[in-house]
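Dear colleagues,

As part of the handover before I leave the project, I'm documenting each prediction I ran so the next person doesn't have to rerun anything. This entry is a single chain, and its sequence is reproduced below.
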Amino acid sequence: MKRHFWFILFGLICYACSDTQQVIDPTTVFRYNEHANITSLDPAFSKDQRNIWVCNLMYNGLVKLDSELEVVSDIADYWKVSDNGLTYSFILKEGIYFHENSAFAKAEQTTNPVHKVTAADFKYSLERLTDPAIASPGSWVMANVKSIAAVSENELVIELSQPFPAFLGLLTMKYCSVIPASSRLKADYNQRSNPIGTGPFYMKRWEENVKLVLRRHNNYFETDDKGKPLPYLEAVAITFKNDKQSEFLEFAQGNLDFINALDPSYKDELLTTQGELKPAYQGSIDMIKAPFLNTEYLGLQLDSDTPELQSLNLRKAINLGFNRELMIKYLRNNIGMPATSGFIPAGLPAGGKIDGFQYNPTKARKLVEAYQQETGDQNPQITISTNANYLDLCEYIQKELEQIGIAVVIEVMPPSTLRQARSAGQLDVFRSSWIADYPDAENYLSLFYSKNFSPNGPNYTHFADSYYDQLYETALSNPNPKEREALYLKMDSMIIDKAAIVPLYYDQSVRFISKNVHGLETNGINILDLTRVYKTH
């Protein structure tokens, strides 16, 4: 099997390079599988991890996040923010070039054959996000932008409608990557299938649902500490096997260089219940765990007609009635941290700093009894809606809550149906998660702002509190990080006090990496960066 796979992979890469008659050393090729497939190579559609990862390999923005989630320079050499927080001025680095591509117009090929990036390209790329003809899911990133101006070839000025201290964090999203202005390209150009970026790799061949091959961008602008041009790798080969068990087998046989996340189909094969690699794999695999800005939770529809959800006592009983520590240990092999604080996860300055719900079955039973006395309902029952991937967690909660007097019905539905019903307010209790789009706690607290009621925003619980809204609006325009953090903590405490949700756990990213792969790091948003990755024999 392994020999057969290598012949296929080697043949695909050699075919992709046939125009240059170059044969690539397999040790310079990084191989991974994307089980969810990739739907577009256009950064305007980099909505979820499958597209974000490959776009991160091919594109750059003005700024990016480092391993500590700090905003640092990418193509912008430096920037200035006006005293009123409304104007952002970016000066671009010199010598940044797009990938070579035959889609550049003839005039461009003659006057600018190396395809240098300019401020006008950034203006086009950012304004394109709000073009109805593009219909980018990232259009909301530009919602607070009043104007964008290319002041000169190397200076871009963005003016906001109102101050928003997290704006730089928004610009780190792959939506905000630069592509060539349309005036520089042929009229029939398609960014989705023939992408042009500035990143360390460019697309060489894409056979949808089968294979994607990226090649090294020889004019990439970054170098290592010794001045050596990056990236080190010559190619990236991505397959699209949708079965996680098959993906694991390919990895175990040495046909993939890493796998991301822990799937129930193989978690007990790889890990002990304590979350450590089993001895059989310690000689060939490295495991990297890191805080991941993702909170898994049960959302409660607060304006539901269901009496159980109208009762603060019963909502608190649900939160107190199951053991999060044991849930993480036995169902997640200790990957993740029990959510015994607020909604904001560890990894952010305001995360993990308030007191949340600890397992207390005695107190939970008393709260159920109080509900029964208040309502006369002696048999409280809730329905939890989930998809199949989280059925084991919901069944665990079901058994635990039955011990304190709450009956639980579990409704399993496809992910797309679950999302639609959640947005439409049709679910009393729903399993959900919130992964940060940018590293600011405001990203999490926006889920409880009353003006963000679904279906027009992410407030799926329909939590509404005028004082909370006041705190949220004050935080939006406050440029002082410490003062914003204090406001965030107050809001997070209110969410817990009202038991608006049931926090389950704060996620961790986990990667299993072959020992011959070096330099593969991660951060709190679990980005895939292969710029400094190399392999040894």
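The first strand starts at residue 29 and ends at 33. The chain has three domains: 1-59+199-282+515-537, 60-190, 292-509.

All the best with the project,
I.
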